[in-house]
Specification:
heterodimer, A: 281 residues, B: 380 residues, two-stranded antiparallel ribbon
Chain lengths: 281, 380
């Protein structure tokens, strides 16, 4: 009897060993309506505080713009959310139950956070179709990837996304042959293929023509609602055209938060950021 | 009618390669065995062995093309996997010698008797069985690549740092195998083989069999590599090569993909080494030399990266030139190799295979390819 108890204490019947627990993020829990919690986040790089005790909450379905001068910590925040950088202090939760700080980049991506880089980053040697196919949600382990076959539902998804990003005619074109703006859209399309709940979009309209900018604005406003979208952008005109809520960062801290017109009239904001932006140049 | 294999439909180079291999695999042994020595069409056993050696090199080049051309990992140590496969085969061949060695010891190979070793080292056990040796041909290079890759890719070592590490790996193995205490015959390596599976290695028939085995291995290596590279994993490989971060941020564990393709490549290299040894009759630590591994990279660069058949072309051309020039103009060879590398880099960035793809006769094939793609989409 004693032996059995010893075994039980080593191997309790109601628990399993850690390594037996499947390596899967818990489901996204949005019962409080907040999709992203960043609390007390600080990071410093060699003494320079890139992010300083930052608190940021993103509502489910919201379209949020983050603005701020160079070095305000915008890209660093993206890095923290997506697992590229780990903060010195603070916590980052995706919904109520997913602890982002305990996951690596691919796990975070698979749990439902898509990220668009500042420089358009697509697989230039693949066709538009293959770019989307690679990004598609699904089992991304090596063996499944080796034996993966596109079924008609998935093909339908790819075509639907092509419709959304307006690259339907370019399906067999090499991604490298696309224009700058089209690459940006393709990258957004790749994020959509992952079926994310939260999209992080870093400077989507940098280098775009006026027309392309307008289409991108439309695209992003359409995406919000079913998904949450966080846009980091320098172009104030663009921010004005899409923003519902704006967060202004300055020196790694949140300087102001609110509706665009409120923020625009905030004296501090005008001093550090809008002032120089509005100055003729 | 048997339908044309799907993976070769858009692969002109590969189709030609497999066709040539099939013809060579039938014709060369036939001309060697059935045509009289004095006849014009006779293929000498020497030539057949030489061609067999090139086939092994071609398979090795495919292995390097997989990791370098498709995955962007410049491995300067693939010779290590090749040589390990060769040693596994060599150990089997040594154990087949039996009492026919110089010292006539029933169990110990000559070099162990010479070193006064009382018994067979433990790691030589099992190599008297062919199946065990073949298993080791796959397991030893594969395991080394897996362990090496596990550490290297997890710590995200890339680029030139990774190249230097692969170089150090093969160099370390070379130094280790040079030592007599290691039990692999020191700098003499393993040689003086007698027979394989009971067939004498001196006979033309066995030689022909080995040639055919090399043809089959190369064809199999080509088709399996093509299959992997045509799959979504293959697309992921080039994606990782071009934009590693993007691949990671769309949810792929980049290190896993690298690890498995690297291991697969090492296994191919090991098989190439195993077929190489009985055909050249010796395996020694100079095969581990970093220079040998760098030469493989040159074959691939000359032939054309990320095409697979380009690697085969490169390995064939350079090794033929090497056999010819080291005999005819031994002083010129290394300069010639260097010049060839520079010229190809400057004027043929896509290698010899690049010529082939841009060439006008690829036109009709392209047209066919487009039609196939259109037909496939229509079927969906």
């Amino acid at each position: 009897m004693n032996t059995l108890e010893n075994i039980r204490s080593f191997w309790p019947r109601d628990q399993v060993f850690d390594f037996l627990i499947p390596d899967m993020p818990p489901d996204l829990d949005l019962t409080h309506g907040v999709i992203l919690y960043l609390e007390g986040i600080s990071v410093s790089f060699g003494g320079f505080k890139a992010v300083d005790d930052l608190n940021l909450y993103i509502q489910n379905g919201e379209l949020r713009c983050i603005i701020g001068p160079n070095g305000a910590g915008k890209t660093t925040i993206m890095d923290i959310i997506t697992g590229k950088t780990s903060p010195d202090t603070g916590s980052a939760w995706f919904g109520q139950r997913i602890n982002l700080l305990k996951m690596n980049e691919p796990e975070i991506a698979r749990s439902g956070i898509g990220r668009k880089f500042q420089k358009p980053t697509v697989f230039e040697n693949h066709t538009v179709h293959d770019n989307l196919e690679l990004a598609m949600v699904g089992n991304k382990q090596v063996w499944s990837t080796l034996t993966a076959k596109l079924n008609s539902v998935q093909q339908g998804n790819i075509e639907a996304v092509l419709e959304t990003i307006g690259l339907k005619e370019k399906i067999t074109a090499r991604a490298g042959s696309l224009s700058h703006g089209q690459k940006q859209w393709l990258e957004i399309g790749m994020l959509l293929m992952q079926n994310p709940k939260l999209l992080l979009v870093d400077e989507p309209v940098a280098g775009m023509t006026q027309q392309e900018t307008e289409r991108t604005a439309e695209l992003l406003t359409d995406l919000a609602g079913t998904r949450s979208v966080v846009v980091v952008e320098h172009d104030m005109e663009f921010v004005r055209s899409i923003a519902q809520e704006v967060t202004v960062l300055h020196q790694g801290r949140v300087l102001a938060e609110g509706r665009m017109d409120e923020v625009q009239n905030n004296q501090e904001v005008i001093e550090v950021y809008l002032g120089e932006e509005n100055a003729p140049h | 009618m048997i339908s044309y294999p799907k993976i070769l439909q858009t692969d002109l180079g590969g189709s030609l390669l497999l066709g040539i291999l099939m013809i060579a695999g039938l014709l060369v042994p036939l001309l060697n065995l059935t045509v009289n020595d004095t006849h014009l069409l006779h293929v000498s056993t020497y030539t057949m062995a030489l061609l067999g050696k090139y086939l092994c090199y071609a398979l090795l080049a495919i292995a390097v093309d997989l990791v370098w051309g498709y995955l962007g990992i410049l491995s300067l140590g693939h010779g290590a996997f090749f040589t390990l496969g060769g040693y596994a085969m060599g150990m089997y061949l040594m154990r087949q010698i039996g009492t026919r060695g110089v010292y006539g010891h029933p169990l110990l190979p000559d070099f162990m008797v010479f070193l006064n070793w009382p018994e067979l080292p433990w790691f030589w056990n099992g190599f008297n069985w062919f199946w065990f040796a073949m298993l080791m041909v796959i397991v030893v290079p594969g395991l080394l690549a897996y362990v090496f890759g596990w550490f290297a890719f997890r710590s995200r070592v890339t680029g030139v740092y990774l190249s230097i590490m692969t170089q150090a790996l093969t160099y370390a193995l070379m130094l280790a195998f040079f030592r007599n205490e290691m039990g692999f015959g020191g700098n003499n390596g393993l040689t003086d083989f007698k027979d394989i599976l009971g067939f004498s290695l001196q006979s033309d028939e066995t030689r022909a069999g080995l040639f055919v085995a090399s043809v089959i291995a190369l064809a199999g290596g080509y088709v399996s590599s093509r299959w992997v590279m045509n799959s979504r994993l293959g697309k992921l490989c080039t994606a990782i090569r071009d934009e590693e971060d993007r691949a990671r941020f769309i949810g792929y564990r980049v290190e896993d993909a690298k690890l498995w393709v690297f291991t697969f490549s090492a296994v191919l290299a090991g098989i190439a080494g195993a077929l190489y040894v009985p055909q050249v009759g010796i395996i020694n630590p100079t095969e581990f030399a970093p220079l040998a591994s760098i030469e493989i990279v040159i074959w691939v660069a000359v032939g054309g990266r990320a095409t697979l058949y380009g690697a085969v072309i490169g390995a064939m051309i350079i090794n033929y030139a090497k056999s010819y020039l080291t005999a005819a103009l031994p002083d010129v060879w290394l300069f010639g190799l260097g010049a060839l590398f520079i010229l190809v880099t400057l004027f043929l960035p896509h290698g010899v295979a690049g010529l082939f793809r841009q060439g006008s006769f690829a036109f009709w094939w392209k047209k066919k390819e487009t039609l196939t793609v259109v037909a496939e989409r229509a079927n969906l």
